[in-house]
Amino acid sequence: MYRVSDELAIIQTIDFFTPVVDDPYLFGAIAAANALSDVYAMGGRPTVALNVVGFPRKNKSLPLSVLADILRGGADKAAEAGIQIAGGHSIDDSEPKYGLSVTGFVHPDQYWTNIGAKPGDKLILTKPIGVGVVTTALRAGHKDTEIERSAIDSMAALNRKASEIGQQMQVRACTDVTGFGLLGHLREMLDGVSGRVQLSKVPFLKGVRQLAELDFIPGGTHRNLDAIKGSVYFDAAIDEIDQLLLCDAQTSGGLLFAVEPDKAASLLYELTSNNLLAAEIGEFTSDASNKIEIIP
Known about the structure:
Number of helices: 10
CATH architecture of the largest domain: Alpha-Beta Complex
CATH topology of the largest domain: Phosphoribosyl-aminoimidazole Synthetase, Chain A, domain 2
């Protein structure tokens, strides 16, 4: 973020990755939603974006019409966000890659970081967990139309409205839940406070636990769990599958808010009134050790 004046700051971000779904149009839309989320997670308003593209132009099994569909998906998602894609850059690559470099604006006194939570603040999550497991199952050929659709809908959904509502409710801190998983990103929010998460309150995609039990678990999810084990206390009732799901590497995940206790109910009401998922999954505690406790 760069402060331009007392009234204006610029947010600059970039994100791109390889396909997480087979449909090129949906891949473009998901990648765009994911990149835009970084601006929403700072309380900002995206204004313009540039395409970032890698594509194997000589691969006969991937005609340029596939690239056109990817770009169309990104452009349509950008239009939904109220912005234009002004251009971009492409390279010849061995496999498709797509994303956006996004420029946004925010008032320099109203932006969010991922720290600033106080003891007693509530944790509010705005999308379900589990898309990493679902996309791993899809790549392995395990097809379930209903589960696939719910995961795609979640990944393609913009965090725009959730961010706007969070600004209205003056949340203290925010992050979006992506590659480090729920617990990895929660750990980044701990600055002189600790966190407590109640597993039964965490929303998961339908069927995702059954897929995890079949071992459709991304390598990144295993690495996430290994990385946070020294910072997390799991109740004895929390088995390894649930531990992994709480660390599942997400693509275009939801926002994770820290909000004052007396504002939590209003935030939940506004989010759900706008047809958004909203779940109070835990709270911050006064323990200054920056630890996370998981209870059933």
